[in-house]
Amino acid sequence: MVRGEPSGADVELIERLAALGVQVSAAQLERWRGLGLLPRHERMWLGRGRGSVSVLAEETVAVAAALGRHARAGRDVRWTVIAWYAEAGRPVLHGQLPVPEPPWPAVREALVWAMRRSAAHRLVEAARTAAGAGEEEQDAFYAQAGRVVGRGHTGPAHPEVMRRVLEDPEAELDQGEDRRRRRGAVRLAAAAAMGAGEVGGEVLVDALATLMPGPDWTDVAANARRAEQSGELDGWIRAGAVDPLGRLEAAGAQEMAAARHAALVLAGIGGLYLMHGFGLPDSPALARLRAQLEETGLALVAAQMVPLMINPPGVVHALSMCLDPDIAALAAWLESVLAEQAGTG
Question: What is the largest CA-CA distance in the chain?
């Protein structure tokens, strides 16, 4: 079909999408088909030498609607695929049609592409280089890590802090909290890439306590000191243990779908956790859920899933995190807790 002369089925598709509030052009439809994202129309033969016509299928409408919702002028189509993939995993709301899954090869390509170009991957690569190099290269890694971690948001504030400010705008905040989080993130990145011995036991535990407040870290700190004295601290976090790109490359379609479900569960519970800070009316069930989440020490991980699952670049990191068995187990446990809480009001 010559560009600018859409088929009858495409004309109907554009009109159907417009009725749904989704604006697309014939050129966009043509491009998506060329990339293997949008099904081609089936042909119906009219008989008696009258030729054939293209027929619009409902599945095509659903796919085109998903692509159209997430397409942006100037946006690489791989970001569109990632946003579509995240939406396809969400529960279907009453009165809405299920969002079809994008083709798995396109999803995998988009996720790997996005991680390769991310600041987090560049940081891991720099750490790997520094691990086997001299002091100058290691200093360069810390400088780069500081720049990467120093940009952007370090994560949501604790809900109690948010609620205190909401109730009293004059309340004083701990201005050093953000700085401590950034410093802890750099130290944890160094330990994950170069081994726990690179940062030392006391510093490592301090970084963990900053990033995962809640649990009592006293015993862990004592164990770290003993491990450091006996030369066994490197076994805590072995060099090269963190490889977000490797996780994405190795995951199959089912593993990624499970990671997506875990990320959405954590984002949902993290949202309830954060909404307490914005004045969500409390209840005994919500209070128990918050308490159980904080006891894990990973409350901020769940809270961070909320902004991550909103934008395609964040989705990539959320899925990589949830491919980790420990994070997946946390999501599964919290999902069971949420179901229990819902059953008891």
Answer: 90
